[in-house]
Amino acid sequence: MCPGSEVGRIIRFGVFEVDLHSGELRRNGLKIKLQGQPFQILALLLERPGEVVTRDDLRSRLWPADTFVDFEHSLNAAIKRLRETLGDSAEKPIYIETLPRRGYRFLAPIQNGSATTAALLSLRKPVAVLVGALFLAITGLLALQHWGIFSFHISQASAPPMRVAPFTTFPGAEFDPTFSPDGKQIAFVWDRDDGKPADLYVKFIGAEQPLRISRSEGSVCNPAWSPDGQYVAFQRSSGSQGTFIVPALTGPERRVSGQSACLGLSWSRDGKFLVFPAKDSAAEPWHIAVFSLDTMEEHRITSPPPNTIGDHRPCISPDSRTVAYARVSSPAVTDLYLSSIEGGDARRITFDKTAIRGCAWAGDGQSLVITGREQTLWRVPVSGGTPERLSGAGPRAFDPAISPQGDKLAYTTGAMHTNIWRVDLDARRHATGPAKPLMQSNVSDDGPQFSPDGSHIAFGSQRSGFPEV
């Protein structure tokens, strides 16, 4: 190891662990064979994550000046062996990127002891702008989609307005942000605008390159970080459906539940529970369920009234004792409720009867941030009272997430225009042809319901400028 290097003896990335002193590489705790020059190359890359290690650097480290060898062939062979051992690809690298005629770069975040570092690739903005927002641009029906991170001091009435700056600027749609426990990374969903299912990504604040940690087996949603920062839970609504847990540095997924509603997911800070909406039958409304990671058992904690849509968007308080959630009476009529994680009576804390798109607890546990009236962010006291609009976020701010330290807030912003389509079914309820547009406009139309005789359709729309039926 180079003198002065800050890389420690044990380094972890993905499912791998490297002992630089003993020269050992382990995958999921099992020792695998990697010796000689491939291991030395890996060690040098890990000493300088995110930096370009030139071919000349590798030559001087691996082959002393008086060594006569076919350097190009030997280096290429060693890199190939290293990639084969890691299960990596030169065309679609997860760990080692090739920079033609220059060298190589290690891409994945690494853990050195208890400290986490990352490959900070091609920084386009100074780190000072991280107090801002998560922005992204979309074409087509997703007219404009942004993500934001703010400097955020919700408990200080005299605090200056939040400053907003982009977090993502990728093609396609990014949404469902969630902070890592140390507040330095954000996990989010990105569809890449390539026609494939959306996947889960992790990115350091201030870095440019995200790390993909799920693998396109169906569209994913609702990431939630474990309190120790080692894992991210998420749901998959198509393909291999269910609720899954995956290492935050990439690795094999583990399915823990068959629930896959994509209506919200939260991980308690004591690490014991996942909370998500669930149904016991198709006819009943959604309720909030608590899933124990110790016993792998699920139990309901809310009982919404019949003939309602039910309870969505749960988020667990910092002390892991209370769950906030949106109770949806109809597509545009929603209010915020609180329930004990043990169950019991629900307490209503908003009375706006407006659509709520996400909630997040402030760090002190005394208030929440929700997307409410006018599709922007509001602060709601846990004790009740009048919601207070947050300045700085602007309109169309969805999916709020607050860092555990309480100093940053991330959100998604943009517009998605939904239209109502029709598909004809046969007696067995199988489609007899492709779906066709039934009613379209340049605003959102949703929630269609047939009349009892099937001759009329009621639906929600914002054609008048306000949500109406």
Notable traits:
469 residues, disordered N terminus, Arc Repressor Mutant, subunit A, five-stranded antiparallel beta sheet, 8% helix, 3 domains, mainly beta, six-stranded antiparallel beta sheet
Per DSSP, what share of the residues sits in E-state strands of 2 or more residues?
35-45%
CATH class wording of the largest domain: Mainly Beta
The share of residues in helices is under 10%
Shape: elongated
Mean pLDDT: 80
> What's the total number of strands?
38
- Uncertain segments of ≥5 residues (pLDDT<50)? 1-8, 113-147, 150-159
Q: Name the CATH homologous superfamily of the largest domain.
A: TolB, C-terminal domain
Overall structural domain count: 3
Tell me what the structure shows.
This protein is mostly beta strands and 469 residues long. Helix 1 crosses helix 3. Strand 30 and strand 31 form a beta hairpin. The chain has three helices and 38 strands. It is elongated and about 80 Å long. The model is unreliable at 1-8, 113-147 and 150-159 (pLDDT under 50). It has a six-stranded antiparallel sheet with strand order 4-3-2-1-8-9, covered by helices on one side. Strands 10, 11, 12, 33 and 34 form a five-stranded antiparallel sheet that branches. It has three domains: 10-117, Winged helix-like DNA-binding domain superfamily/Winged helix DNA-binding domain (Arc Repressor Mutant, subunit A), CATH 1.10.10.10; 127-416, TolB, C-terminal domain (Neuraminidase, 6 Propeller), CATH 2.120.10; 420-461, no CATH class. The longest helix is centred in the first third of the chain and has 16 residues, at 71-86.
